[in-house]
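Me: I hope this is not a bother. Any chance you could explain this protein sequence and its structure tokens? It all follows right here:
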Amino acid sequence: MASMKELQQQLEAKAARLAAIQKDIGKNHQVRRQYTIQHGENEMVQKELELLEEDANVFKLIGPVLVKQDLAEAKANVNKRIEYILAELRRMEGTLKTLEEQQRNSQEEVMKLQQRIQLAQTGKAKS
């Protein structure tokens, strides 16, 4: 059977891994929130572009300059951007599911180690 010191070291390592996973989950939630906001903004732009007449002037902001852009090109760019954002959101969902599963497993491992330590301590106390 592992010594108390070894169990403590294992517990610390597992707890550190759990903390790292939780940090990654937080970062992924933040990135997903940003993509969700961008998706909403781009859908608004897409709806606005659909309202325009074919001969309407469309300008794109590049740095400090407004550059005239073809309406069809502007619509295509927005559509591509929306497709990219949706693909990233799907990827983020998969990553989050994986991380949440790792978090559950890591929490279980930490709890099992804590129980082993408690059992070992109560065994020493009875001796």
Remarks:
- The radius of gyration is 26 Å.
- The chain has two helices and two strands.
